[in-house]
Write a structure and sequence with these properties.
five-stranded mixed β-sheet, 2 domains, alpha/beta, D-Maltodextrin-Binding Protein, domain 2
């Protein structure tokens, strides 16, 4: 009998003993056999948007490694609250995943103190998938060809420039508020119910500027219908390599935008969390997924659960302060 066989045998025995004496036999058995059926990935927004695209891309990639299908479940409503609440209340068995982001885990908790879920206590982070910047655009009628020129114009006439957003407390709103705060300018907020109506009024000249999805705005930028002044990420975007960041343009330390990550309900066994993490990190390294994420203007990340947990806490504190200081209220 080989030493390798004996070593493997005793490793198995040791795991079983630890599970039994720790009162965790059922959990250990579950983790070793997991998964045995399809998984559900809750997306807190309707099909067709950036969140949905990222979710379906990651679901397709990790299903192969897990040996089970990963079904996307769109639970739109209340700015992402309904989907997050459903995920938080799901059984912590590794069969319900959640696509979280800045809205569900940083903005909504800061806007609504009576939220039906706790972004920290009710979830176990698995991995940060990607981050996605926004881009600042102005309509062609505005005589500003750089961030410095826009800032000078806004300072010269406080309250004269107006900006469009996807709604009060949206990522586009917060990106603009952060710019106002750091640049020391004051503009007029014009909230819309989504990107489409906001874009219509930017193109017609009803509003002068907007921070919004880089992917959604690239066609308008390349067609010359709007002018891009800066992107909100730490580094330049591959979709707009000639457009500087706000930090490059004079606002040192400015960084805003969306991010996507996978979480599971709190109490999910650690072995399962790590199994999911390994599959997600592997998937994020695949050229096919990286290409899809790049098509959404997103930069692939892939992280440990601990790194993702720290990211969420940092974003929650940062967005919370921004929302409180700007006196932003939920619609």
């Amino acid at each position: 009998m080989s030493n390798t066989y004996l070593g493997n045998k005793w490793n198995v025995v040791a795991r079983i003993v630890l599970c039994v004496f720790g009162g965790l036999l059922a959990t250990c058995t579950l983790a070793q056999s997991y998964p045995t059926r399809a998984l559900r990935l809750i997306v807190p927004f309707a099909p067709g948007g950036g969140n949905d695209t990222v979710a379906r891309s990651i679901a397709q990639q990790i299903s192969g490694g897990l040996g089970q299908p990963v079904v996307v479940d769109n639970r739109a409503g209340a700015g992402g609250v309904l989907g997050a609440d459903a995920a938080a209340k799901a059984a912590p068995d590794g069969y319900t995943l959640f696509l979280g982001g800045v809205g569900s885990h940083a903005v909504n908790p800061s806007l609504n103190p009576k939220l039906s879920y706790d972004p920290i206590k009710d979830f176990a982070p698995v991995s940060l998938i990607a981050s996605a910047p926004s881009v600042l655009v102005v309509n062609q009628g505005l005589n500003a060809r750089s961030l410095a020129e826009l800032t000078a114009m806004a300072k010269a006439s406080p309250g004269k420039l107006n900006y469009a957003t996807n709604g009060n407390g949206s990522s586009s709103h917060l990106a603009t508020v952060l710019y106002e705060t750091m640049a020391g300018v004051q503009m007029v907020h014009v909230p819309y119910k989504g990107f489409g109506p906001a874009l219509t009024d930017i193109l017609s000249g009803q509003v002068q500027l907007m921070f919004n999805s880089i992917v959604a705005l690239v066609p308008q930028i390349k067609a010359g219908k709007v002018r891009a002044l800066a992107v909100t990420s730490r580094n330049r975007s591959s979709l707009l390599p000639d457009v500087p960041t706000l930090a490059e343009s004079g606002l040192t330390g400015y960084e805003a935008g969306s991010w996507y990550g996978i979480l599971v309900p709190a109490g999910t066994p650690r072995d399962i969390v790590m199994r999911l993490n390994a599959e997600i990190v592997r998937a994020v390294k695949q050229p096919e997924l990286r290409e899809r994420l790049a098509g959404e203007g997103a930069d692939p990340v892939g992280s440990t659960p601990e790194e993702f947990a720290a990211h969420i806490k940092t974003e929650l504190a940062r967005m919370g302060k921004l929302i409180r200081d700007a006196h932003i209220k939920a619609e």
